[in-house]
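User: Hey, my collaborator sent me this sequence without any context and asked if I could get a structure. I don't really work with proteins. Can you help?
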Amino acid sequence: MTHKSLERIALYPGTFDPFTIGHRSIVERGLALFDKIIIAVGINDAKRCYKPTETRVRHIKAMMADEPRVEVTSYNGLTVDVAKEYGANFILRGVRTVADYEYERNLAYANRQISGIETVLLYTLPELQYVSSTMVRDLDRYGYDISQFVPNSELLKD
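Assistant: No problem. I've predicted the 3D structure and written it out in structure-token form, which is a compact way to encode the shape of the chain:
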């Protein structure tokens, strides 16, 4: 008989390029549901990222430094494999739009089918719905201050 951990561990995967106040809100709200959250910064060779993986990991660790139940890592490969490696029994994802929902629903079905790991979707708070990493990157690229969307944004400077 195998004993499954009673600890509720969620893996929160994404490229987080950059990790915004919207992402942080999902983590903070997720902590009410889970005992531990592993923020997993995905390395996707098909995606050209604005900031290097190491910079993003360092930034997220600084943003979440006051929360001992949050761990930050990077990974390459399938999300479900990383979830298993960390003993995560859930995948946590945020949803801002209907398009996000459609995409996340299909991923959740596939992940459950191949691994048995459930996905929990949290809807973005209405006041943060417009905040996206793409918008923040564009603002930063054109020299605008992004600190209201990305606390500790100075840590993203290379």
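In plain terms: The longest helix spans residues 98-115. You can pass these tokens on to your collaborator as they are.
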